[in-house]
Design brief:
It catalyses: Couples ATP hydrolysis with the unwinding of duplex DNA by translocating in the 3'-5' direction. There is one protein chain. By secondary structure, this protein is of the alpha/beta class. It folds into 2 domains: about 140 residues, P-loop containing nucleotide triphosphate hydrolases (Rossmann fold); about 80 residues. About 45% of the residues lie in helices and about 10% in strands. The chain has 13 helices and 5 strands. Strands 2-3-1-4-5 form a 5-stranded parallel β-sheet, sandwiched between helices. The longest helix is centred in the middle third of the chain and has 22 residues. The radius of gyration is 23 Å and the shape is globular. It starts with a strand and ends with a helix. About 20% of the residues are buried.
């Protein structure tokens, strides 16, 4: 079964493990009703301090197709002598320090020849000019708008040769945004039509009554302030894996989009249709705050 690796520091491994355990509760064991032992857990850790017998289980069970884990929180220790064929996704919490380190870690995925995905979650601190521990090429990889595959290959002295220049969406996120193949164009058109339909539904007038809210600049500032205060309450402890944004989906971008669309947020359903909310609870909070300061 496919595995996802989440690379991070030892603290990230511990926090990620505890977060999953807290959120999943009894559902963290598979199958339903199975003994609540580490071998039946859907996620685990792998680092130098982890018990050797647990690490042996995590490297042997996938090969024998009996591994229950689907997510592993790992450090650089996972790359030493580990070769599993079923890793479909590699996630980094924070930007790796060097290209060599990043290349070695994402190389854990796709060893069976099937497609795999690599993702980096980072914040402005990871890329700040004063943080010398991250190589410039890694900062460019994370935040640049060029082809990521080309940048990686160029760093190691290779040239990117595309077998098909019309379907570049499978290369990286930057190329996916530029892809003009039939599938991407159809998907883009469908999203535009969906957005137009949602806007028509939200702003339609079925009884000569304007459904939009009337919100002043002062009220918008109050809404923004309340949303930021709510975001600050979402931490589960001194720190959060990848930050509160990654853990809860309540991001500064979500707050900005809430302000932009505040006049149209006339119901929880409207919030879910117009904003990139992580869950229904976030939609309810946003609707309550907008309603409170617009009435």
């Amino acid at each position: 079964m496919p595995l996802t690796l989440v690379y991070g520091t030892l603290d990230v491994c511990a926090e990620g493990f505890m977060y999953f355990s807290k959120m999943l509760g009894n559902k963290q064991y598979f199958p339903k009703g199975a003994a609540q032992i580490s071998r039946n857990r859907l996620f685990s850790q792998y680092h130098a301090q982890y018990p050797q017998h647990e690490k042996d289980t995590l490297t042997n069970d996938p090969i024998n197709n009996i591994c229950k884990a689907r997510v592993l929180f790992v450090t650089v220790a996972f790359g030493i002598g580990v070769d599993l064929p079923c890793i479909r996704q590699v996630i980094h919490i924070g930007v790796p320090r060097t290209m060599e380190e990043y290349f070695q870690e994402i190389g854990r995925a796709g060893r069976d020849g099937l497609p795999a995905v690599a993702t980096i979650y980072y914040n402005c601190y990871d890329l700040k000019s004063g943080k010398s521990s991250v190589d410039p090429v890694m900062k460019e990889l994370a935040s640049g708008d060029g082809c990521k595959r080309k940048l990686i290959l160029s760093y190691f002295g290779h040239e990117l040769i595309r077998a098909n220049t019309t379907t570049i969406h499978t290369c990286c996120d930057n190329d996916a945004a530029k892809c003009e193949c039939d599938d991407c164009l159809s998907r883009s058109l469908a999203l535009e039509m969906q957005d137009a339909t949602v806007e028509d539904n939200i702003t339609s007038d079925d009884s000569s009554e304007n459904l939009d809210l009337s919100i002043t600049v002062f009220q918008k500032n109050k809404i923004r302030e309340a949303l930021r205060k709510h975001m600050e309450t979402l931490y589960f402890g001194p720190s959060c894996v990848g930050g509160v944004s990654l853990a809860t989906g309540f991001t500064t971008d979500l707050i900005d989009k809430t302000i932009e669309n505040s006049e149209h947020l006339t119901s929880v359903e409207a919030v879910e249709n117009l904003l990139p909310v992580f869950c229904n609870e976030n939609a309810k909070v946003i609707y309550d705050i907008v309603t409170r300061f617009s009435s």
